[in-house]
Amino acid sequence: xxxxxxxxxxxxxxxxxxxxxxxxxxxxxxxxxxxxxxxxxxxxxxxxxxxxxxxxxxxxxxxxxxxxxxxxxxxxxxxxxxxxxxxxxxxxxxxxxxxxxxxxxxxxxxxxx
Amino acid sequence: xxxxxxxxxxxxxxxxxxxxxxxxxxxxxxxxxxxxxxxxxxxxxxxxxxxxxxxxxxxxxxxxxxxxxxxxxxxxxxxxxxxxxxxxxxxxxxxxxxxxxxxxxxxxxxx
Lengths: 113, 111
Description:
The complex is a heterodimer of chains A (113) and B (111). With 113 residues, chain A is mostly beta strands. Helices cover 0% and strands 58% of the residues of chain A. Chain A contains no helices and eleven strands. Chain B is globular and about 35 Å long. Chain B has strands spanning 4-7, 10-13, 19-25, 31-38, 42-49, 56-57, 65-67, 73-78, 87-94, 100-102, 106-110. Chain B starts with a strand and ends with a strand.
C-alpha cells in the first residue's frame, strides 16, 4: 500500500523566514495530497491541498509544490509567524473507490521570535 | 461548519477489558476513518468505512474491530485491550479525495 515519508521530524526557523517541509510517497497512482496542521494539544485541521493535475498551488502564505516524477511534494510557509508553530502532516491518497489517505509522521515546526 | 465528535474524550481501561470508542459526524460524509497517533509514527490508519454497513481494514487493524451502523456513527472496538493500544485515537470524516474533518481525539490509557 501507499507509504508517505515526511523527511523532517522537527524544524526550527526565525520569525519572518520561510519554512519548507518535504514529503515523498511510493504509489504512482496517488493523486491527492493534503496538508494538515495540529496545534499543541489539539486536533488536526486542513490547511491546503494539491491535486496531481497541477504542480503548484498557493493560498496566502502557503505554497505546495508537487513533483510527480520524483514522487515528492512540499509545503512552503513564507514569512513565518509564531502562530505557525505546530505539527504539520502530509498525506496522500489514490483516486480509487474507497481509498483512505495515508499520513506522514509529522513535522514539528517551531517559529522563534 | 463540519462537525465530528468523539466519546469518550479520555478513557482508562484495564488490560483484557473491552473498550468502545464512538464517533459521530453531522457532515453527511460517506467516508469515515479511525487513526491512532503515536510519537514517531504520525497518524496510522486502523479501519475505515465508505458507508453505513461497511468497514475496511487499514494498515494496523490487528486487535481492533470497527462498526458503522449508520451514516453518522462509526465505532472502534477493542475487544481485549492491551497496553500497546495506549494512544490518542482520532476519527475523521470526508469524501473521496477531499478534505478530512477530524474529531477532537480520545486519549486511551490501558493499564
